[in-house]
Structure formats: C-alpha cells, structure tokens
Amino acid sequence: MTEPGIQPPLTPQDPYPPAERPTMYFIGVTTHQSSIMKVFPRWAEYLQLGDVAIRGMNFRWHDDPANYRRAVALIKDDPLSLGSLVTTHKIDLLTACRDQFDRLDQFAELMHEVSSISKDDGQLVGHAKDPITSGLALEAFLPERHWERTGAEALVLGAGGSAIAVTWYLLQPSHGGNRPTRIIVTNRSTPRLEEIRRFHASLGGDVPLEYHHTPTPEATDAILADLKPGSLVVNATGLGKDAPGSPLSDGASWPERGIAWDFNYRGNLVFLDQARAQQNAKNLQIEDGWIYFIHGWTRVIAEVFHVEIPTSGPRFDEISRIAARVR
C-alpha cells in the first residue's frame, strides 16, 4: 500500500513531470527503501505543512552528470518542486550542477558538496547540512568529554561527503582538548582520498591526520587492529545500504571499548553485525544511523518548507517518537 503523499521514485530513464502539489525530492540510490517514505507524511501532519508530497529520485553511484542536471533543473524551474535532500551524490551533484545554483551556503562552499536544495525568494540554494547533523548525531551518543578522558582515535572508513563533514566536526578547535588524538581516513580509491586531504590542509589544525588507500577489507582490518582503546570507527562508505557488504572483513579485530558507528540504519548492515560479533568480548558501543537520519531529515525539511524545527527538547522528542513508531 502506498503512503499518502508518496509517488514511485523517478529514474533518469523517466520523464520528469511537474509536481502537482508542493513536493520535496529525495535524491539517492534506493530511496524507495528509506523509512522517510513512511515517516514524512506523519511529520508533515505534525508540523502542519499542509497538502505536501515527497518523491524519490534514484541514481547510480557516480551517475552521468547530465542526469543530475535534469533533476536540479526540475527543482529550479517547477514552482511546486520546492527542494530536495541529497545523499550519496552530494559531491557529484555539485560538481555537475554548480552553475545551476544561484548561491551556496558557507558549508557547501567549504565542503564542495550539496546535501540539501531549497528555494529562497526565487533563488535556488545549495546547502551542506552534514557538518551540522553529523555533529548533532555524534554528540547524542558519545560519552561526555570522551576524547579528553580516553585519548582515543577516530577511524573514518570512506572519504566522500559524509566523511568530510564528520572529520570537519571532529577537527574543530572549539572542542579544545576534547578531540581525537589521531584521525585516520581510508578509502578504496585514491581520488577522494586526495580530495579530503586537500580539504583538511585548507583547515589547518593540530590533530594528526592519516590517509590510507585500502582497496581490500583486509587492508582496512590492519589499520583497525592498531587503534587505541575507546576509538571511534565510522562506516561512511555506503556499504551495507547503497551496496552490499562492509569495508571490513569478518576477521577484523576491534579496539577494546571501541565505538562502532554506521551512518546507515537500513540495509544488510554487515559492518554492525561484525561489531556485534565482538561486542561482549571487546565491550563495544554500537550505534546505527537512526539519530543521524532524524537530524539529517529534520534540518532539510526545515530549510525546504521554511519552518522552525528544534534540535532538542520536547518537540524534537515527539518528532523522534513519531519516526520510531514507523521505523
């Protein structure tokens, strides 16, 4: 049964019809499988957004730039197409469509990615929300003063937009001494590693950074085995949701008292299964991407529909409960 306000996802092979009512889009890979398709109508009712809709747009990883341009053109030119959340394609979409935006927010300029598209007084605006939402999600589960107390490190698996955002947050000088003692980034290919290296260089800072090309899970395993106790390990690859598998092998050895955080909350989530296999033996804390999902979507909905949505407090708690009931 189709939820009210939801239409089948568009693909590059489809015509892109104008929206029949105020619509936000979800640009991703497997958007039809996301919980947002059930959550959005209930949030829209709670937030009193009126007769609005959500529609997915499914693209291949690193799709043809012309396909991204068609999607952005629809949002730009159609009065009832109000904006979009973008996942997986954040960097590729901005690379292909930069000239279609009237302006970018400070984080989109800084991160060279777009995770949210909205309209403001007739202008098409690109936003990068992940630096904000990854920080909100991380602080929701990270023990207080974790880095300062433990001297732990952070291993970020993947070098795309989400990895850029979470490392930006971890590196912020405003955290003072409560930052990882080392941040390691791995990726299966080298171009994105070089991109994130250049980004970090532009920030400056005094936290040691390492970059490793890891074409196989076993190569990543070797880095994992060298982490200090209490270290954070983040799956920012998309493996487990947009593609099957994990950046680690089943033989990977987790750090004592480590924290496993998968940005995904749906899919086969092999990364989290691997952590759970050692949870008791290594006393691991395991977190999926659900709170990241809530913060990510509410920040974008607020931007697209120009409504105030809190990031904490009773109203945010109710928004979270609404989502949990249909998870």
CATH domain fold name of the largest domain: Rossmann fold
Mean of the pLDDT scores?
Answer: 94
Kindly estimate the percentage of residues that lie in beta strands according to DSSP.
Answer: 15-25%
Number of domains: 2
pLDDT under 50 segments (min length 5)? none
The CATH architecture of the largest domain comes to: 3-Layer(aba) Sandwich
Q: Bin the helical content.
A: 25-40%
The order of strands across the largest sheet is 1-3-2-4-6-7-5
The description of the largest β-sheet is:
7 strands, mixed
**Helix-strand pattern:** EEHEHEHEHEEHHEHEHEHEEHHEHH
How many beta-strand runs?
A: 13
**Which structural class do the helices and strands define?**
alpha/beta
Using the CA coordinates, give the radius of gyration. 19 Å
The rounded distance between the terminal residues' Cα atoms is 16 Å
If helices are DSSP runs of H or I spanning 4 or more residues, what is the number of helices? 13
Please state the overall shape, judged from the principal axes of the Cα atoms: globular
Secondary-structure topology with pairs:
Elements: E1 6-10, E2 23-28, H1 36-46, E3 53-58, H2 65-77, E4 81-86, H3 90-97, E5 103-104, H4 106-111, E6 116-120, E7 123-127, H5 130-141, H6 146-150, E8 154-157, H7 161-171, E9 183-187, H8 190-203, E10 209-213, H9 217-224, E11 232-235, E12 259-262, H10 270-276, H11 279-282, E13 285-287, H12 290-305, H13 314-325
Helix pairs in contact: 2-3, 5-7, 5-12, 7-8
